[in-house]
């Protein structure tokens, strides 16, 4: 099941005329130079590219200096020039995530022999290997197979199997679980050595819920740590001198739980793994974001003593692990390591962005045609809006950008329920703000002005290629659903001033607003669920005055909720949405439904109706951050009074709400 290729890593041109060992003192960060049988190996990582090759924001239709593999490529070229031995790997989530990905999947398509643009760009850069991320499955297994067929590098994932065996090593895996690369490295004395470098890949097993429609009955997922414990010894038996885990899984709890999504910390404890490339969380490691995490050392860049890196997202950073290897008899061992990330841009005090590198022309040229085609694709007008569609205040009040989504979903499901046994049940619609700042930064918001609505705007309103679903729930589950969403808010002490409102670790895509009912959120009460959806305060609720058409919602009432496949299949662990309440599975993506809705209406008027608000708390104020461009809308937010409160961190603006 392994690939073996033989490619020398030596790059002597930079060191020509100079003793290799002496040059390395200046070129790598170690205070001790590689000498004798010691080898300095630099392993570079990209992760969560999400089809971002060009430094371009297709949603805003403008250049963007903060993204793009073409920019990251400058760092890659620099390291290859300065390092005697280097490797380049990708950590998954490369096929989906921006309009270019959707254009290829839905408009152009992938036929046998076609080349996917992100694969073409990766081939141009000469990647050594990659793993799959969870978003590789978004367009189905056939699309995935045709896309991977063009890769000039092995792609590995160990914990997705077409059929399961008695243990992971007996599985018929979807793609090879690992690869052992035969390489040649040069030591500090200029002597070449053969080395076998093993790379094994992992993806969150939650893909079976997130992409149930594509995967159910076709593949199965295994626990990441269980899988590693089975395969890594086999890699050792096959002669792997160094093993690097390509873990498309975040850095989370140190305590292993079966099927955990963010498993990189317990994965690092698996004997035989020498280093970890991580991702999935769209964060940077090492960084203060991970201070205090058990088993994690942000100063050394290690997890359980092993070097690990996470290179941001969309090409924002290149992750670099420096390994000093030493030959110990016939085996290699890691003598020491250092970890760093190289950003492609920096944000200035005045909120402007300074690019730190320029794009590499060969990478741009490799996808120029698809870039131009994507621009034509996203600029097509499908209708008009007489209301600005923005998400600057979507986490603190009813919001027009979410309203247009819930309106379209409800419009579609109302039609689908006609003639069924559920016709006549009240239809609600759940929607969440996808672009609401957070890790995406102060410019990461939907902002569609009055006027034409193009496909690029619909993609901006709804980032993911989810498909429509409907679930049937009761009033008790509805309340639980809303309580799960309300976990985004911190508990607020009545009578206190300027308390932080939002929990920054709670993703905005799990903040569902439920259209079709009215309700209040009482922030003085504790959250019923933690960030993972585990009930920690049974019997309590933050939801008050829950009404449907002016009548209090009782536990026994029944509702149909329009939502998406991710949520309906258990994504986010919402009460009433665990996969067993689905009554309708549509073939259409939520984006396509929004487009059809706009086309039919011609002009849409998705004004936020203020169907949810905060319960009043005398003498209490809270603070939250949003993008500074939201200033022009602050006076028109329904249900709350918002006032400026100065500058926030990292380019955000700070606002105050009086409860």
Structure description:
- By secondary structure, the protein is α/β, with parallel strands linked by helices.
- The chain folds into two domains: 6-372, 4-Layer Sandwich (Purple Acid Phosphatase, chain A, domain 2), CATH 3.60.21; 380-496 and 507-615, Alpha-Beta Complex (5'-nucleotidase,  domain 2), CATH 3.90.780.10.
- It has 16 helices and 40 strands.
- Strands 1, 10, 11, 13, 14, 15, 16, 17 and 18 form a nine-stranded mixed beta sheet that branches.
- A hairpin with a 2-residue loop joins strand 19 (317-328) and strand 20.
- Helix 3 (99-108) crosses helix 11 and helix 12 packs across helix 16 (590-601).
- InterPro entries: 5'-Nucleotdase_C (IPR008334), 5'-Nucleotdase_C_sf (IPR036907), 5'-Nucleotdase_CS (IPR006146), 5_nucleotidase/apyrase (IPR006179), Calcineurin-like_PHP (IPR004843), CpdB_N (IPR041827), Metallo-depent_PP-like (IPR029052), TAT_signal (IPR006311).
- It catalyses: a ribonucleoside 3'-phosphate + H2O = a ribonucleoside + phosphate; a nucleoside 2',3'-cyclic phosphate + H2O = a nucleoside 3'-phosphate + H(+).
- Belongs to the 5'-nucleotidase family.
């Amino acid at each position: 099941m392994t690939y073996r290729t033989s490619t020398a890593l030596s790059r002597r041109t930079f060191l020509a005329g100079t003793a290799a060992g002496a040059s390395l003192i200046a070129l790598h960060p170690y205070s001790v130079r590689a000498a004798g049988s010691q080898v300095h190996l630099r392993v570079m990582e990209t992760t969560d590219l999400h089809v971002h090759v060009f430094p371009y924001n297709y949603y805003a239709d403008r250049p963007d200096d903060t993204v793009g593999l073409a920019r990251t490529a400058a760092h890659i070229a620099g390291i290859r020039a300065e390092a005697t031995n280097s490797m380049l790997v990708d950590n998954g989530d490369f096929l989906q995530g921006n309009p270019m990905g959707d254009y290829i999947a839905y408009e152009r398509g992938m036929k046998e022999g076609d080349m996917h643009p992100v694969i073409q760009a990766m081939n141009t850069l000469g990647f050594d290997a990659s793993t799959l991320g969870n978003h590789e499955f978004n367009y189905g297994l056939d699309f995935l197979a045709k896309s991977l067929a063009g890769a000039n590098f092995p792609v590995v994932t160990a914990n997705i199997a077409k059929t399961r065996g008695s243990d992971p090593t007996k599985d018929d895996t979807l793609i090879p679980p690992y690869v052992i690369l035969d390489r040649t490295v040069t030591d500090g004395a200029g002597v070449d050595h053969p080395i076998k470098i093993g790379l094994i890949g992992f993806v969150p097993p939650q893909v079976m819920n997130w992409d149930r429609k594509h995967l159910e009955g076709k593949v199965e997922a295994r626990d990441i740590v269980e899988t590693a414990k089975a395969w890594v010894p086999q890699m050792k038996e096959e002669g792997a001198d160094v093993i690097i885990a390509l873990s498309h899984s975040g850095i989370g709890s140190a305590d292993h739980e079966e099927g955990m999504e963010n498993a990189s910390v317990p994965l690092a404890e698996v004997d035989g793994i020498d280093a970890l490339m991580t991702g999935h969380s769209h964060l940077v490691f090492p960084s203060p974001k991970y201070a205090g995490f058990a088993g994690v050392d942000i100063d050394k860049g290690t997890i359980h003593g092993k070097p690990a890196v996470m290179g941001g997202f969309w090409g924002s950073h290149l992750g670099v692990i420096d390994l000093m290897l030493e030959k110990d008899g016939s085996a290699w061992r890691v003598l020491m390591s250092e970890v760093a990330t190289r950003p492609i841009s920096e944000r200035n005090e005045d909120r402007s962005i300074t690019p730190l590198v320029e794009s590499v022309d060969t990478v741009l040229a490799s996808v120029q045609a698809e870039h131009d085609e994507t621009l034509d694709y996203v600029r097509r007008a499908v209708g008009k809006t007489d209301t600005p569609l923005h998400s600057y205040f979507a986490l603190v009040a009813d919001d027009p950008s979410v309203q247009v989504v819930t309106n379209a979903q409800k419009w579609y499901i109302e039609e689908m329920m006609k003639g069924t046994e559920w016709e006549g049940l009240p239809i609600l619609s759940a929607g969440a703000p996808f672009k609401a700042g957070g890790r995406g930064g102060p410019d990461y918001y939907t902002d569609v002005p009055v006027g034409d609505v193009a496909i690029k705007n619909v993609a901006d309103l709804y980032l993911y290629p989810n498909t429509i679903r409907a679930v049937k729930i009761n009033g008790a589950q509805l309340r639980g659903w809303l309580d799960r969403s309300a976990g985004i808010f911190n508990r607020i002490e009545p009578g206190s001033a300027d308390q932080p409102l939002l929990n920054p670790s709670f993703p905005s895509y799990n903040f569902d607003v439920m259209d079709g009912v009215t309700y209040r959120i009482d922030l003085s009460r504790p959250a019923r669920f933690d960030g993972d959806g585990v009930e920690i305060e049974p019997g309590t609720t933050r939801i008050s005055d829950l009404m449907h058409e002016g009548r209090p919602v009782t536990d026994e009432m029944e509702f149909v909720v329009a939502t998406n496949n991710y949520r309906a299949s258990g994504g986010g662990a919402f009460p009433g949405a665990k996969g067993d309440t689905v009554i309708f599975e549509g073939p259409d993506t939520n984006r396509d439904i929004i487009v059809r809705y706009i086309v039919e209406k011609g002009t849409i008027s998705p004004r936020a109706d203020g169907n949810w608000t905060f319960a009043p708390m005398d003498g209490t104020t809270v603070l939250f951050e949003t993008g500074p461009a939201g200033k022009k809308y602050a006076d028109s937010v329904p249900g709350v009074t918002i006032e400026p409160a100065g500058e926030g961190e990292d380019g955000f603006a700070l606002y105050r709400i009086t409860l």
